[in-house]
Design a protein that fits this description.
single chain; 42% strand; mainly beta; 6-stranded mixed β-sheet
Length: 672
């Protein structure tokens, strides 16, 4: 059974052999102190023992091994990225030696390696290094009373205090700005919307994620949202968590301020595809315009008006024809209110777009009629060209301004008095330069040419002599050379043609070369080789090589001379006269085979012979050749006869004293 405990008190004697000081409140210096000590018991427990107490007690005082617990205030705090000055630690009052200031000389919170100044932020995760130099020579301090790491203190000893240094976050201010953009223009961060200043050599791997810029843009960043201001905060993402060492001050906001994309008269045509076309004189219905904005916006708008149309113009419905010369008026009622806001159109109802309306030319037909005229008949051509043109399709009040029929023109008429050659020629309406200019402006003119047909002026045997002046003259019995014929057509045509033959000449007639003499009794044959092919065509002579013209050749009489010789006969000598008249005529000039037909000498006749028994009186009397009436008629037909009379001279029958009595029967009887 457990008894009552005995209490034995150990009674120290004095200061434990000097081991303690100050009433045993502190130890003496390091060392061993021996002493005796008494044992006391209130119950006198030792009364039953034979106490043998031969050994001394002792107190061994070991040097104080300095630990971090002995260092007070060995703390160091600096801000991330900066190196604060080191402070002062204290050696705590050990064994009442008193406190002693110790210098903090380093900390592994600092890197000592530029550009990085501090380690990462952390509270009491770094050490401080405390210099123990101040213990040397300090009053009341005996170095043998202290050890460090089991060794006596030495000069320049340093003590590292773990978990005593902190790096506090640096302040990092995030500056957030916005951007202004125009509706439809996606303007992204140029690096100034979200800015900050990293320190301590930090590598900036922050990726600023604007997302869709607070819904200002679509996710693909290809379109903007509607006009307005969109606030947001871009996120800052860092693979290295670089912001872990900062107290981030991020009070601002990013924003995108989308202002209207202004559409006005300066750029209507860039965004509104408006086109109106009507035909001159017609009022076409207005169609649709296409609105193509920015941001992928499209809309269909109504075209409501155009100054291409004439209002209250009577018969005049449109302006003159012109390409994109007039405006269109486009209504904005097809745009939503939001779209109007996006384009700054809230106070506008329509847009007028210049040069977007066209008046196309109307169709106008100018027809020319066909007609036929004979070659050379300029009057017929002129008559055919009179009112030859017909204008069809005048509109827009022009019917009152321009005639519906006009004269024609054609190369069928060379000038006022001449036609063109045989053939077909276009007939075109004649329109004055001013009228044509006016019509060309507003009409697409389709001209249908007529045809003027020039037919041949027929030259044939019925009228050869009206146009071919052919004449051939030769002398009886002679073959004159053929000459030229003069061709005088119509239309001022002339030509020189070859006369190639005539029936005035006798072919294969031996000595007979010509027909009998006659004025224009024979024909001539005229060759058409002197006419051009075109001229032959103009006169219907393409299949003819020559023309025979009756009564165009003459055989003139040949020259025939009938000479009568001279002779002398005595008055009364009838025989002498008769003898003189015998073969008194000589015919010279017989041609064309007539020499064989007619004697070359003939008797003569003269008044020198009164009758068969009497001469005429003394004197000179013509002697003429005696030719029979038939012969003379035959010769007169073919000869131009020149008769040269001879002279029959009747000389006196001489009566003189030698022959008075032969011829004078004279007797005189008287009565005495």
């Amino acid at each position: 059974m457990r008894g009552k405990p005995y209490i034995i008190r150990i009674i120290n004697y004095q200061n434990y052999g000097g081991a303690y000081k100050d009433n045993n409140k502190r130890t003496n210096n390091a060392g061993t102190y021996k002493f005796y000590k008494g044992l006391q018991s209130d119950t006198n427990v030792l009364r039953n023992y034979d106490v043998i107490d031969t050994q001394k007690n002792w107190v061994t005082i070991k040097p104080h091994e300095l630990t971090a617990a002995d260092i007070l205030n060995a703390t160091y705090t600096t801000k991330y990225g900066s190196a604060n000055n080191f402070g002062t630690a204290k050696l705590k009052n050990i064994n009442r030696d008193g406190e002693l200031d110790l210098a903090i000389v380093d900390s592994n919170a600092l890197t000592h390696k530029k550009p990085r100044i501090t380690q990462d932020v952390g509270e009491n995760i770094y050490n401080t290094v405390v210099s123990l130099d101040n213990i040397y020579g300090a009053d009341g301090f005996d170095l043998k009373n202290y050890t460090l790491n089991g060794k006596a203190l030495g000069k320049n000893d340093r003590m590292t205090i773990a978990n005593s240094a902190s790096v506090t976050p640096a302040d990092l201010v995030i500056t957030r700005k916005g951007i202004d953009t125009v509706y439809g223009t996606v303007k992204t961060d140029d690096g100034t919307m979200t800015t900050y200043n990293l320190i301590n050599g930090d590598t900036d791997d922050i990726v600023i994620d604007n997302g869709n810029y607070g819904t200002a843009y679509n996710d693909e960043l290809t379109k903007t949202n509607n006009v307005g201001k969109y606030n947001y905060k871009a996120t800052l993402n860092s693979e290295s968590d670089v912001l872990r060492n900062y107290n981030v001050h991020d009070d601002g906001t990013n924003y995108v301020n989308i202002t209207p994309y202004t559409i006005d008269k300066t750029n209507y045509k860039d965004h509104i595809n408006s086109s109106y076309e009507t035909v001159y004189g017609q009022t076409a219905k207005f169609g649709k315009a296409t609105f193509t904005g920015v941001n992928g916006d499209t809309a269909t708008l109504d075209i409501t008006d155009s100054d291409a149309l004439v209002k209250n113009g009577g018969d005049r419905k449109t302006q003159d024809a012109a390409k994109n010369a007039y405006n269109t008026v486009v209504s904005f009622t097809g745009l939503s209110d939001q779209m109007k806001k996006n384009y700054g159109l809230t106070d506008k109802t329509s847009a007028t777009l210049d040069n977007t309306a066209t008046v196309e030319k109307a169709k106008l037909t100018i027809d020319a009629k066909d007609f036929t005229a004979v070659y050379g008949d300029a009057a017929a051509v002129k008559n055919g060209l009179k009112d030859a043109g017909t204008i069809t399709g005048l509109v827009n009040g022009d019917a009152a301004k321009y005639a519906s029929t006009v004269d024609g023109t054609s190369e069928a008429l060379v000038d006022d008095t001449h036609t063109n050659n045989v053939g077909d020629y276009d007939v075109n309406a004649v329109i004055s330069a001013d009228t044509r200019t006016a019509l060309d402006k507003n009409y697409e003119i389709s001209e249908n040419a007529g045809t003027a047909t020039i037919t041949p002026y027929t030259i044939n045997e019925n009228n050869y002599k009206d146009h071919i002046n052919s004449s051939y003259t030769t002398v009886y019995g002679q073959t004159a050379k053929f000459g030229k014929a003069a061709f005088t057509g119509v239309n001022g045509d002339t030509a020189e043609l070859e006369i190639t033959d005539s029936d005035a000449l006798v072919k294969n007639g031996g000595d007979r070369k010509t027909q009998d003499a006659a004025k224009n009794a024979y024909n001539t044959v005229v060759s058409f080789t002197g006419l051009s092919d075109q001229m032959k065509k103009n006169y219907g002579l393409t299949d003819k090589t020559s023309a025979t013209l009756d009564n165009t050749a003459t055989v003139e009489k040949a020259k025939l001379t009938i000479d009568a010789k001279d002779f002398t006969a005595t008055y009364g000598d009838v025989d002498a006269v008769k003898n003189g008249l015998k073969d008194a005529g000589t015919i010279a000039g017989l041609v064309n085979g007539d020499a064989a037909k007619y004697a070359s000498t003939v008797d003569g006749t003269s008044e020198a012979l009164v009758d068969d028994t009497h001469t005429n009186n003394v004197g000179d009397y013509d002697v003429n050749a005696v030719i029979s009436a038939d012969t003379r008629n035959a010769l007169n037909k073919n000869y131009e006869i020149a008769e040269n009379a001879g002279t029959a001279t009747i000389t006196p029958y001489t009566i003189d004293e030698n022959n008075y009595k032969d011829h004078i029967n004279s007797s005189y009887t008287t009565v005495y």
